[in-house]
Amino acid sequence: MRASVFALCLLALAGCSTGSGGSATVSSDELPAAVLQPADVGPGWSRFVEARQARIDQHAGPRSDTARFGRLEGWIARYRRAAAEAPGPSVLDSRVDLFEDEGGAKKDLAAYREELERGIPGSDTTSKLLQDPELGDESVAGELRQGPLVFLTVAWRRANATASMTAQGRTATTSLTDVLRLARRQDRRLGRAAAK
Question: Phi and psi for 193 in degrees, rounded to 5?
């Protein structure tokens, strides 16, 4: 399971600016509410992780250091679908990372792109960049395919935080639309945090 979640997270790239700008910031105590909540995913899903990010949750490569770019901490929530054979994603990974300032968050989003461009060395996966969604202040998207599975990631920045939503599912039935619907719900949560 950890390998699948790791692969999920290697999918992003830096992209477009939709610009809310300003001096709004996200604070540490707002992180638990800035990831997907059970009400966001609806019935048929069970949350199996909801906690402060640990070292094992960090991505290999440019985002592996827990103190990267002035990072303070992060929160993560993971869900699995009860009916594994149902169409659409079967596993969801929702996370948020908090930085000392906006500059650190910008660097973290750029590091998502580097991860996707590198792919997973020595693996049988293929990756490609997807159209940048309009989300947060800047956003990125990408996919990684491994056999019959696809890992779709949308990552974005809002003020001094980055967030990402990754879905794992069968290639034939999982689309970016599924991920964007959930990412927008998470971004509304992050937007409220940034506006306080």
Answer: -65, -45
